[in-house]
Structures are given as C-alpha cells and as structure tokens.
Amino acid sequence: MCGIVGIFDFRGNREIDAGLLHRMNESQFHRGPDEGGTHREPGVGLGHRRLSIIDLSTGQQPLFNEDHSVVIVFNGEIYNFRELMAELAQLGHQFRTHSDTEVIVHAWEQWGERCVERLRGMFSFGLWDRNRSTLFLARDRLGIKPLYYACLDDGMLIFGSELKALLAHPRLRREIAPQAVEEYFAYGYIPEPKTIYRQAMKLPPGHTLTIRRGEPVPLPREYWDVPFRAHDAFDENEAAAQLHARVKEAVGSHLVAEVPLGAFLSGGVDSSAVVSAMAKLTDEPVNTCSISFGDAAYDESRYAQQVAALYQTRHHVDQVAQDDFGLIDKLASLYDEPFADSSAMPTYRVCELARKRVTVVLSGDGGDENLAGYRRYRWHMVEERLRSRLPLAARKPVFGLLGNLYPKADWAPRVLRAKSTFESLARDSVEGYFHSVSLLSDKMRRSLFAPAFRSELQDYQASEVLRRHARRAPTDDPLSLVQYLDMKTYLVGDILTKVDRASMAHGLEVRVPLLDHHLVEWISGLPSSLKLKGSEGKYIFKKSLQADLPHDILYRDKMGFAVPIASWFRGSLRTQLQARLQGPALRDTGFFDMAFIEEMCSHHQSGRRDYSAPLWSLLLFESFLRTHGASA
C-alpha cells in the first residue's frame, strides 16, 4: 500500500518544480514509510511513497516500461497479477520485476484504457504515456483506494492519494464549497465526487480520467457498476453453498503477500466469516486484533474472543479508554476534510494495535451493503410496503401533518419513534431513505445554517446526491436500490474512507475480500428475499456459515462500532464542547446560526434532547477549520 502524487501540465511542457513535487510526496510519508521516489520530465512530475508488500526487492516506483516511455505510480494491490503477467508474457511483453505494478504498465500498452477491466484488486494509479502525450488516472471499482485531483488556474492538474498532497500545492484555493457543507451535515461525510474545497474533486469509484496534453480536461469515464443482474433460479441450499465457496475463494485471493498477515475480528458476522475462511486456508494460526470498550453497551470483545478460541487464532485485544477523545483534532489532520463518523476513533486504535504485529490485515467491511445487514434496510422495507398502498399525493399531506404534530423521541426504540416514520412516509422512496440516513434532518439543517448561507446554497439539497445515483441505478427492486445507494455513498464516502486513513496513518494495509468485485457482482444477482428475509438481514450469508460459526455469533443483534459521545458531551467534554462551538472558527465562517448551536448545546447537556450527532458533526467541522485554515 502506498501514496501517490502527480503534477501535469495539460497545456504545455513547463518545467515541474522538484521541491514542490517532493513536498507533495512527503506529505503522505505515513502511507509509504519504506521508500520514496519521484520522476520529472517536461510537463510531468510523479511521486510515490511505498509500503512494501509484494516484490520487496525490485518493486520500487515510479516504475517504467522497457524504453521509459510509460511510467506509473500505483497505490493498491492487484490480486490476479500473476495470471495477467503470464498472459502478457505470451503476448510478447517482457518483465523486469515480479511486481503487480509492472503488470499495469504492460496491461496499458496492450489494452489501453480498458486495462482496468482486467484488474482484480484495489487500486488507484496515475500513468504517463509520453508517446501518446496522455495522463491516465484510475480508481478501483468500489473505491477502496482514494484518488483526489484538481485543475488549477494556471493549467496544471495535480493529483494525490489524500487531500493533504493537493493542499501542499500553493495554487490550490482553499475556498469551501457551500454544497459540500450541506452534504456534510446531511451525511456526516462529503460524498463523491465533491470535496470540501471548490477546486478539488474525488475521482469516483469505477472511473478513469484520460487527459491528453493540449486538450481540455474531460469528465471521468465510468468503466464498471454493480450490475444487479438476476441469476438463473436456484434453491436456498445451492445459493448458500455457492456463496460459501465464493467467499472462501475471495478471501484466498487476498492472501497474496510477502509480509505478515492478520485480520480484524470484531465478533460480528462479517469479520468472523473472514477469519473462519483464513483459518482454513493458512497453515499458521491467524493473527487477529480486537478493540474492547469499558462500556458494555458498546463492547463486542467477548464475541471476538469466542471466534478466536474456536479457530485458535493469535488474538490481541486493546481496551479503548472511555475518554479517548484526545483523537478529535488528530482526525481532522488524518481526513483533511470534515468527517463525523465517531467510529473513526476505535478504528484508529485497532489499526494501531494491528500494526504492532502485522503489515496487512483483512477486514469484513462491505458485508452489510452487499447482503443487507443494516437495520435501516428492514425499516425501509416496512415503509415501502406502506408507501405502496397509498400514492404520494395522498400520503404527503396526511403523514406530513402527523410528522409535524408527533413529539420527537430520540430516547425511544425505533419502533416507537413514530415522528421519524411519519416524516419518512410523507416522502417518496429515495427521499424517505435520505431522511432515514441523514445525520441532521432537512428542518434541522435549515435551522443550523444562517440565512445568508442558505441563500448561497440556492435551494440545493443534499438529497440530490441519492437522487442522482437513483436515476441511473441498474435496478428498481426496493431493497436492491437502497443497497446500491449505500454502495455509491456511505460505503465509499464513510466506511472505506475511514479505514483507509486510519490504517495508512500507521503504515498498515487493509484488504476487504467481501468487496472483491467478482463476489459483489454475484451477490448483487441474488434475490432480495435471500438477503433480507422477514426481519433477518444477511439471511443467506448466515445460512451459509452455520457449519462454521456458533448460533449466537450469527444471530445476535448487531452492536456497531461507536463511542459514547452523548455522555461525553454531558460530562468530560462538556466545557470543551461549549468553548469550541461558540468560538471564532465556526462563527467567522458566517455559515451558522450561533444561537441555534447554543440552544442545541444547552438542551443536550440538560438531558432534554439527544443532540449528540449534530454536535459531534459541528465539533469535527470546527476542528477541520482550525487545522486546515480553510476559507468561506
């Protein structure tokens, strides 16, 4: 795993500043502490920081073809590189290394832009072809590895694995994008392709960007999408058997490495399934890592210990302190833009623990989106059945009125939170799902933002992100549609971003076999009834694992990986929260109604309401502003 950067003059052949390229590259030292390298030629500069995983002796980058006309900087792993190497050698290509990086270079020479369709793995890369005067940027299908880019006013394009590499360039304007602020306070992260800055973008998952010197920078091109093509009919037992075999094959493909391997083990279904497959595929005991919490409401470590004992892993556990909020400002420097998922803190700690023993770990991320594991899917389908009985024109006034009249009950179980359900039923399917996943509701965002900022948004609403994806979704099945929306937004913008930054901060590579694109494609074709059956999410996955894992691992309630921020804000962080949210960083932006922020603090700390989610998002936004000096 590595960090990449680049500077490209798409208007001409101007000299690239060596010192600037070096500073951009070194800003990502943590992503590749083993080695670093740069390459410059007229109009092009590429940089690379290396974390050595495969071909430790000869895999240095930037890496060239035989005549040095093609050069690449690459972040990721190509799991089928040996098969591709053999195929390309038969086609006449000569290899000087045993690295997966060189395979991409020859794949480009052989297949051009379509080379990405042949790659199985997680990747982002920048490739310069001098003979074609072309810079080619690519990102893997699910967005496991990040890639940021910006077109500067002087005709230079810059790119990097993290925003901090772009921020090292003095010509990148640090102006905050108002629509990105609206999206952040709706989702808790900024969905692709936007970033917090007007000038910088994320290359979306499953896209490439081909820039030819002397031509305008085009829009990215999509080369893959989740297909949701139905399989030929087969019964439950056959589906479970096939799923079991395919998961095992995906895990096996992810074990290619020349360094120690391990796994995250939370005690949930997904990580336990990965560990089970690893234990059957390796001769040595699997190294497993878990985090425990002092608060039993958040602690799953006993379940992780149960799986570790079953498969005789080398299990390591660290306990996160109840007041581990010293990481708040650290998170701002890691993520480079506002990021409000509080589980980033324990994720950072479990990566820190894992890196003490291994260089590569496998994770169970992706199982919930693939196999309908989130509780919100269950509630969405209940609401969809109600929506199907009444047209929107009839639902909107009735349930809209009930939603306004019914009192809010944050403290109550979901089944008793009728206000939220009524509000959702007054909307269409996509808007209703947006309402269920929003960090702050539409009404709360309107109250939070100052009138001048609302005017600047020009009626833009963050729900447009989901609508944009829904308009081009390859399925109209109600459950598959919201899974698709999550894969396009929450999975890449939150889950994978969280894990990438937390792991790379420690020079740790995390692999996600449940997001192997062959597996994702096959699972997407399963009937929804095999994913969510009644109230049981991941139904067919759990059925496939019944011989491998105990019943209480498979069928217990999902706990998640959160931290007790509601109690922090009423206790240890009470004073700090008030000082920072009423301080100059937020006030000087002009974005916010400061009286409303003060009201939320007061009501939360008195126990009248649970405003922990909006207050946490504001605290992380304030930390971002102080850390990065962004401008409104």
Give a written overview of the molecule:
The two termini are 34 Å apart. A hairpin with a 2-residue loop joins strand 2 and strand 3 (44-50). Strands 2-3-1-9-8-10 form a six-stranded antiparallel sheet. Strands 4-5-6-7-11-12 form a six-stranded antiparallel sheet, with helices on one face. A five-stranded parallel sheet has the order 15-14-13-16-17, with helices on both faces. The longest helix has 18 residues, at 236-253. With 632 residues, it is an alpha+beta fold. It contains 29 helices and 19 strands. Helix 2 packs across helix 3. The model is unreliable at 411-416 (pLDDT under 50). It has a domain at 2-222: 4-Layer Sandwich (Glutamine Phosphoribosylpyrophosphate, subunit 1, domain 1). It is globular and about 70 Å long.
